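STRUCTURE:
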């Protein structure tokens, strides 16, 4: 301690206060902290502090394909995500239909808010959810679906397509027409749940 302030009442004398303060401070252990020295592992050090057990996954731009026609494609349980090219210009101009405008106003949605289209396996018909996922990947990479990113939830057999509210009607209609989806697809928003079905 460098500076110590002691407050006392007038009946005590200064020399008694100093004496008592010395005695109290002697009871505190005085330790000197060691100097900090950063540690860097050397090339010969085999025991690294952080060492992954498995090598990182290989990332390829190629789409998966079957090597044998008779073999069934392998179904991975992990969900993957594809994101559109953000540098691509957005050229779509449109106005909302009465149904969409009413739904947006009812829930007080901002046009830049993210919403999600959920496409189930039953919507795909003969196409199949795996094939739809591959075709959707191509459409997003070619910037046919503005502001979109998609996630394949294989455990649920669903494809989740996220987009801005401004494009949600266009994207919903694109999904239904381009991929000839059957039944209704659901539009949901965070904390609001299902907004509408198309």
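SEQUENCE:
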């Amino acid at each position: 301690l460098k500076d110590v302030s002691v407050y006392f009442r007038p009946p005590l004398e200064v020399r008694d206060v100093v004496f008592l303060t010395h005695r109290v401070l002697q009871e505190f252990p005085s330790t000197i902290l060691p100097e900090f020295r950063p540690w860097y592992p050397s090339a010969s050090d085999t025991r690294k502090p952080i060492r992954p057990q498995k090598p990182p996954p290989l990332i390829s731009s190629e789409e998966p394909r079957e090597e044998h026609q008779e073999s069934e494609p392998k179904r991975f349980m992990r969900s993957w995500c594809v994101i559109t090219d953000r540098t691509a210009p957005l050229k779509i101009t449109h106005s909302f239909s009465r149904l969409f405008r009413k739904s947006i106003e009812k829930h007080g949605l901002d046009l830049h808010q993210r919403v999600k289209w959920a496409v189930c396996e039953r919507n795909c018909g003969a196409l199949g959810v795996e094939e739809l996922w591959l075709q959707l990947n191509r459409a997003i990479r070619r910037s046919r679906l503005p502001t979109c990113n998609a996630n394949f939830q294989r455990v649920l057999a669903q494809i989740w397509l996220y987009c801005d509210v401004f494009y949600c009607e266009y994207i919903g209609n694109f999904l239904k027409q381009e991929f000839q989806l059957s039944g209704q697809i659901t539009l949901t928003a965070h904390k609001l749940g299902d907004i509408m079905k198309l």
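REMARK: The radius of gyration is 32 Å.
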